Amino acid sequence: MQTSPPFRRDRARLPAAERRRQILEMTTKLIAERGFWGLSMQDVADGCGLTVPGMLHHVGSKDSLLVAVLEYRDEQDARSLAEMLGRPVHQLWTDGPSLPEVCAALVRRNAEQPEIVRLFAVLEAESLAPGHPAHDYFKARQSRTLDELSSLAADTVANPRELAAQVMAMMDGLQIQWLRDPQTYDLVRSWEAAATRLFPS
């Protein structure tokens, strides 16, 4: 009778920064598939060839791992967006791009990474519960995003924050439709149609 070979952990010693990045990428993948509540620390550790204590040595608790994943993805997206717009990251929201330009770049970026968009959609909905470990993160992120988008429209409309809120609502709604039926919805094309209504000038 044949038995499955025992699980062998990867004993390769990676630099701490590389190991942390590996853990964050694996956690991102698993949360996108299962949601935070379905996330197992054992599965993350197994995917990285580590024990659970060894993995937690790099990231702390499950809650701190979740927030680290979200912050890591925000950093990755900001770098990518700055590159798409031909700007330094620290000038992404100042002295240059218009709100329509930034929104178009954001949608193109998201269209290339459905798993990440799904991750944020799932966690944002789950985190509406006050006891969720990402509740404060998403509350602060929403406020920050409204501020950033508003700053790009400050000189073009009478109420830039109202426009920013409409942009966020439209973008989030279109992403949900796209994630649910990607064969039918083209995210970039849907956004372009919506942008003609949001930015009529």
Automatic annotation (TrEMBL):
Q: Does the keyword Transcription apply?
A: yes
Record-annotated DNA-binding residue ranges: 40-59
Per UniProt, the keywords (alphabetical) are: DNA-binding, Transcription, Transcription regulation
Task: Provide the HTH tetR-type domain boundaries.
Answer: 17-77
Put simply, this protein is called TetR family transcriptional regulator
Task: Quote one Gene Ontology molecular function term.
Answer: transcription cis-regulatory region binding
Q: Give one Pfam family.
A: TetR_N
